[in-house]
Design a protein that fits this description.
Structural class: mainly alpha
Largest sheet: none
Order of helices and strands: HH
Distance between the termini: 17 Å
Strand content: under 5%
Number of domains: 1
Helix content: 40-55%
Mean pLDDT: 94
Length: about 60
């Protein structure tokens, strides 16, 4: 797997994932907040499978 998620994209994904999970754990939002696992996982891994079919990448080109 080649990394296709850049620095700013990763930071936004990790932040959004943590916020959603925290809001769900504290009962502020419903069970749909557990979807925060997805952006958290893609942010931590640096790879997003949804980018593949479209050939997208937010990584800087070398």
């Amino acid at each position: 797997m080649k990394s296709n998620v850049g620095g700013i994209d990763r930071a936004v994904r990790i932040t959004a994932g943590v916020v959603l999970l925290a809001l769900t754990a504290t009962g502020v939002i419903g069970a749909w907040g557990w979807l925060g696992v997805v952006p958290l996982a893609t942010g931590l891994s640096g790879w997003c499978p949804a980018y593949l079919p479209f050939g997208l990448s937010t990584c800087k080109t070398r």
